[in-house]
Design a protein that fits this description.
This protein is α+β, with helices and mostly antiparallel strands. The protein is 55% helix and 20% strand. Helix 3 packs antiparallel against helix 4.
């Protein structure tokens, strides 16, 4: 694209030389009008190319900013998994404190656009689920039966797939 623009500029320089070259006859008004239209069309194309470049660059920068913390977020999700496991303990006081910490932690994640993926009872989707095991079931084949590890999205992108058990299909019906 840049190369084409340079060629256009070189072409403009050549046309300028041709127009300003001393000639025995001055250019006709039709020639001048045609040259004007050609230059104006080139200018408009160049302006449109620049506008497209500016918009594309802005979109790319926006995507980079939105997902700059993705690696950090994935590491934090391991902490969230440990909270989930600790919450299954029998100690009521410890459990209550962990629930408060987990609530705060989820609030922070949500503030940064990180949302858990709902899996149990949903149709298996390889874009956001990782099947760890398949179980015989009376449910429709391909239904998520159990979630071992929660999956998460950051804005619209899956940053970690949920590890799930998927139904094989109806058994003994």
């Amino acid at each position: 694209m840049v190369h084409d623009t340079e060629e256009e500029f070189n072409g403009l320089d050549q046309e300028k030389k041709e127009i300003s070259a001393p000639d025995s006859t001055p250019p006709s008004p039709e020639d001048l009008q045609r040259d004007y239209r050609d230059l104006n069309e080139r200018f408009l194309r160049l302006a449109a190319d620049f506008d497209n470049f500016r918009k594309r660059t802005a979109r790319e920068m926006d995507a980079q900013v939105r997902f700059a913390i993705e690696g950090f977020a994935v590491e934090l999700l391991e902490v969230a998994d440990n909270f989930e496991r600790a919450l299954k303990s029998e100690d009521a006081k410890a459990r209550e404190g962990l629930e408060q910490i987990q609530k705060l932690f989820r609030t922070v994640l949500e503030r940064h656009g990180i949302q858990p993926i709902e899996s149990v009872g949903k149709k298996f989707d390889p874009a956001c689920h990782e099947a760890v095991v398949s179980l015989p079931s009376s449910c429709e084949e391909g239904t998520v039966m159990e979630e071992f590890t929660c999956g998460y999205r950051m804005h619209d992108r899956v940053i970690r797939c949920a590890k799930v058990a998927v139904s094989k299909g109806k058994e003994g019906v």
